[in-house]
Write a structure and sequence with these properties.
- The structure is a single chain.
- This protein is mainly α and about 350 residues long.
- The chain folds into 2 domains: about 150 residues, no CATH class; about 180 residues.
- It has 13 helices and no strands.
- Helix 8 runs antiparallel to helix 12.
- It is globular, with a radius of gyration of 25 Å.
């Protein structure tokens, strides 16, 4: 009988997970924007508290924050648009360079095969890579980034409601629950606010440094599309692990096609890789530490899952969303083992009593 109950619970759990996944996928047109607005509102909470101390009206604070967010997102979108336009204009020239590069590589491999095997082996790159479409593919990818920012109005609309509600949300919790339950709920919410804010602000700082360093290197050597590459580095490094390799790919391809000097190519690529290494292995651990305490495997799985569910936005928000889920699970007694498995260390971080008093 006991085994029968366990089987029923497992089946119900599986059905519930599938149902939640279906709902999340059906709401993909609106839910990522709402979650992004919540994360953005969380970042600005300390700023709101500081301005409220000086008796600044909440509507003025909201308008100021909306202006900052809109100006930042529009600036990024405009930089991507200029880069995509420039790539489209230079597509024929770079297509020709692609052809020359692969033809030269094909001739080299053919000569090498003659020396090694005593007979020539033809390498037909056209069967593997459609040279004429490569530049247009980059243009389409760049355009898709710009298209993401077309949802800016929806994000800003949600942000207005998030900012307006944030100031009284905790008061509602205190009124809605008993003293003990309200205290525990506030601990969880404050812990989520603190960890997510630390992660988002740290990533903003680190990615800004990364983008600026990439831009300085590329501009110093006169590499084409320097601003576009820098903005890509800034955006893609919000995607842990995977984003770093993707952000390096574009400028490296441009450098290989633009320069004939082997030494110049090696220097530029070495500097780009060195910057990524120093930021990823020295600067980022010092700034972020183990703020979210998530297992690398859990991070990878969350990237795959949220990326499949919501595309690019899902991959960007995968880590903070998973962190929120872990914090909630570790405060449900029956779910604590799952939270422990999701942690990077052997035990989840405990919630401090001081979290209750956080705004």
């Amino acid at each position: 009988m006991q085994n029968y109950k366990k089987t029923i619970v497992i089946l119900v759990g599986i059905i519930a997970v599938i149902a939640v996944g279906f709902v999340l996928q059906q709401l993909a047109f609106v839910l990522p924007h709402l979650i992004l607005a919540v994360f953005l509102g969380n970042i600005f909470n300390p700023m709101i508290d500081w301005m409220r101390k000086y008796k600044i009206p909440l509507p003025i604070i909201i308008v100021l924050i909306l202006f900052i967010v809109a100006a930042s997102l529009i600036g990024v979108a405009y930089a991507l648009y200029l880069g995509a336009t420039s790539i489209g204009a230079n597509a024929p020239e770079y297509g020709q360079r692609f052809t020359e590069l692969f033809n030269g590589l094909s001739e080299y491999l053919t000569r090498s095969s003659q020396k090694l095997y005593g007979k020539s082996v033809a390498f037909n790159w056209n069967s593997l890579i459609d040279i004429e479409k490569l530049s247009s593919m980059v243009y389409v990818v760049a355009g898709s980034f710009v298209g993401v920012f077309g949802d800016l109005v929806l994000v800003l609309l949600f942000l207005v409601f998030v900012l307006a509600e944030a100031r009284i949300f905790r008061l509602k919790i205190c009124k809605a629950f008993t003293s003990d339950n309200a205290s525990k709920t506030l601990k969880v919410i404050n812990r989520i606010d603190r960890d997510v804010r630390q992660y988002m602000l740290s990533k903003l700082l680190i990615n800004t440094i990364n983008g600026a360093a990439n831009w300085l290197i590329l501009v110093a050597f006169g590499v084409d599309f320097a601003l576009f590459s820098a903005v890509l580095a800034f955006l893609l490094n919000f995607i842990p692990n995977i984003g770093t390799f993707i952000s390096l790919g574009f400028p490296i391809i441009v450098v290989l096609l633009q320069f004939d000097s082997t030494s110049t190519i090696i220097i530029i690529i070495s500097l780009l890789v060195l910057v990524e290494f120093l930021i990823g292995n020295v600067l980022e651990p010092r700034i972020m530490g183990r703020s979210l305490n998530l297992s690398p495997l859990v991070v990878l799985v969350s990237l795959i899952f949220w990326g499949w569910l919501w595309g690019g936005w899902g991959m960007i928000m995968a880590v903070p969303i998973t962190s929120v889920l872990k914090i909630v699970l570790q405060n449900i007694e029956s779910m604590e083992p799952i939270a422990l498995l999701m942690s990077e260390t052997h035990r989840p971080q405990s919630i401090k009593n001081s979290d209750v008093s956080e705004a």
